[in-house]
Design goal:
The protein contains two helices and six strands. The chain has 150 residues and is mainly beta. The protein has one domain: Roll (Thiol Ester Dehydrase, Chain A), CATH 3.10.129.10. A six-stranded antiparallel beta sheet has the order 1-2-4-5-6-3, covered by helices on one side.
């Protein structure tokens, strides 16, 4: 296992997400603006398991994409020119769900930026458990000023 570079408190200094919607636990590798590896420990008491599904807890695929997006946001918003800004979804493409993610799983999140032009970029994203791919997609983001209605 990699060393932890950022814990939740350090992550919250970069992205505005807070409980219950801060969905990454730690960052293990980062090349600012280029790529990131992060981790989410899937716990039995995670809020979505109350209703998804009673008696058969499965992490929703869209929340795994959100976890990947939050990791990508840490990667991009760590750039000095984006300090204090927020990342918004611009699009989700090529999403594939390959494996169920259950309580007790450790979800490894990897995002690599493949395009960026100004405040808009796209990352290739993969979430896996023990090396087995759970979700893959491309996420497009827009960096925006926080707190302002667009």
């Amino acid at each position: 296992m990699s060393d932890v570079l950022m814990n939740k408190e350090q992550i919250m200094e970069i992205i505005p997400h807070r409980d219950p919607f801060l969905l990454i636990d730690e960052v293990t590798e980062i090349e600012v603006g280029v790529r990131i590896k992060a981790r989410k420990y899937i716990r039995e008491d995670d809020f979505w398991f109350k209703g998804h599904f009673p008696g058969y807890p499965v992490t929703p695929g869209v929340l795994m994409i959100e976890m990947l997006a939050q990791a990508g946001a840490v990667c991009m918003l760590s750039k000095p020119e984006f300090k204090g800004k927020i990342g918004l979804f611009g699009g989700i493409d090529k999403a594939k769900f390959r494996r169920q993610v259950m309580p007790g799983d450790v979800l490894d999140l990897e995002v690599e930026m493949i395009r960026q032009r100004g405040p808009v970029g796209t990352g290739k994203a993969i979430a896996s458990v023990g090396g087995e791919k759970a979700v893959s997609c491309e996420i497009t983001f827009v960096v925006a000023d926080g707190g302002k209605a667009e």
